[in-house]
Amino acid sequence: DGGITQSPKYLFRKEGQNVTLSCEQNLNHDAMYWYRQDPGQGLRLIYYSQIVNDFQKGDIAEGYSVSREKKESFPLTVTSAQKNPTAFYLCASSIGSYQETQYFGPGTRLLVL
Amino acid sequence: AQKVTQAQTEISVVEKEDVTLDCVYETRDTTYYLFWYKQPPSGELVFLIRRNSFDEQNEISGRYSWNFQKSTSSFNFTITASQVVDSAVYFCALSEARGGNKLVFGAGTILRVKS
User: What percent of chain A has pLDDT over 70?
Assistant: First the structure.
């Protein structure tokens, strides 16, 4: 079955720690995205990648970093510079990067200890 | 700037009632796409529909229907004969032609269907 997987489902971060959220897709999609969802709010774009080895900042990129070394994978690192990391993180992918439908993974909930 | 407003924060209905979720958008582009997604309690966003700005035909899919009106910048979603399984958060989103594939989401509407 084709789809998007995210791991872990829950992640706990200590003060000053960097953590990495995994996102993998086997849909052969070129573009991938990371969104953050806070309670009572819509999703906000953190980073996106239209092609391997290339990515762009979204609206709230500060305190986050990404890499796109493989087409299937788009990991997100939440650095210690992100002062309010507690949120639900959703990864998405689309066939292309021009107004294509984005399909979402199951999400990772990040909590700060 | 692009913006999506879902004024209804939460709606509660009894099973079998019809319910309409409102979505109003703002954009300066003439070419854009509108989307609806469903987020059940599990958290994953499920794609429901994509509509481009040049296609104002209403669409029906089973118990779901969408009413796109450019004159009022609205893209409303109606569920007919609601069921408990329809309980979820529903998001409307906008993608402008000049914005690449960036989606701008509304804040979402929580729909609670009671049996």
Answer: 99
